[in-house]
Amino acid sequence: MVYLTIGCRCLIAVVFLAAAAGKIRNRRAYAAFVAATARFLPTWLPLAVKRVAGTRAGIHGVSAGVLAVELAIPALLAVPAAAPAGFALAAVVLAGFIVAIGAVLARDERIVCACFATSTAPVGPQHLVRNGVLLAAAVSGLALPASSGADPVGALLAVVAAAVGATLLIFTDDLVELFR
Q1: Whether 127 contacts 104, CB under 8 Å
Q2: Which of 51, 53, 54, 96 is most buried, with most CB under 10 Å away?
């Protein structure tokens, strides 16, 4: 079980780090992320919240908040004592992403996924699956024992397996396009 915990930590950390890095790699990527964030705002928000969040400053604040959380998750997961907080934060964020994506799909809107700021694919069921897999990893990480006492070779194998899994999840849009 200790290796599964290590794998979950690495998987989630790599995916969130890649997501944040993609969004801040240049001005255009960040602008695309901010524009997508504005479109993801749920229509059911109370009017007072919409007035603040729907402004230019509000959207930038929400975007900066999402980015800060995406950077905090790998940092928390890197420290064994803080890993449960990282898993919990990841689970909350991923559940929020699932709800937001589900709402967009329910409204039948076409919004480009700015998840990693590299894809032009609109949000679709594949994003729900990807985030569901990550949510399962986060919840598993919370439920599993701490990752101390691992054999170095086993830990390295867990890290490599997590890196492969993270790569597949990061390139979900490309994989879906490949099999269409």
Answers
A1: no
A2: 53
- Residue 145's Cβ-side half-sphere holds a number of Cα atoms within 13 Å equal to 6
pLDDT tens sequence across 103-156: 889 988 888 877 877 778 889 999 999 999 999 999 999 998 776 788 889 999
CA distance 100 to 20: 18
pLDDT digits (tens, 9 = 90+) for 75-88: 999 999 999 999 99
Q: Domain range for residue 35? A: 1-179
Return d(Cα 149, Cα 109) in angstroms, integer: 48
Count how many Cα atoms sit within 13 Å of the Cα of residue 39 in the half-sphere of its side chain: 19
Q: Residue 91: exposed, middle, or buried by beta-carbon count in 10 A (0-12, 13-18, 19+)?
A: buried
Nearest-angstrom CA–CA distance, 59 and 76: 25
* Residue partners of 165: CB distance under 8 A and separation at least 6: 7, 11
Closest CA to 73 of 137, 131, 15: 15
pTM passes above 0.85: yes
